[in-house]
Write a structure and sequence with these properties.
The chain has 126 residues and is mainly alpha-helical. The chain folds into two domains: 38 residues, no CATH class; 68 residues, no CATH class. It is 48% helix and 6% strand. The protein contains five helices and two strands. A two-stranded antiparallel ribbon has the order 1-2. Helix 2 packs across helix 3 and helix 3 crosses helix 4. The protein is extended. This is TSL-kinase interacting protein. It holds the Pfam family Myb_DNA-binding. It comes from Trifolium medium. One of its GO terms (biological process) is pattern specification process.
Length: 126
Amino acid sequence: MQTEAEILTDLSTQLHSETIVSVQNEDPGVSTSLANAVILPQQPAPKKPTRQWAAWTRQEEESFFTALRQVGKNFEKITSRVQSKNKDQVRHYYYRLVRRMNKLLGPELCLDAKNSKDTNAAMLRW
């Protein structure tokens, strides 16, 4: 019959994606030897479901930029003017545009999304 240490060695060589977690004794400062370790399979992170939003039409984009020019970065007011999109979609669209512009501008001309006045001005000039 195999010892616990031999079983652990066999399992660790067979299962490449496992991690070893040591089991703590009753005294929290002392951990047991590797022979008493527990092997838990490493679980892949659950995939976050992707959003299934419809693409923005030309009319919706024009309404968005008109509203952005008039009310600034007030997503609720923009949403009331772009009635076919909800607040999350409007906010997501705004920040996606900021990311795209930053990607095109490069690191030396990066826009700060927290400085909405400059970001909005850059978007409206773009």
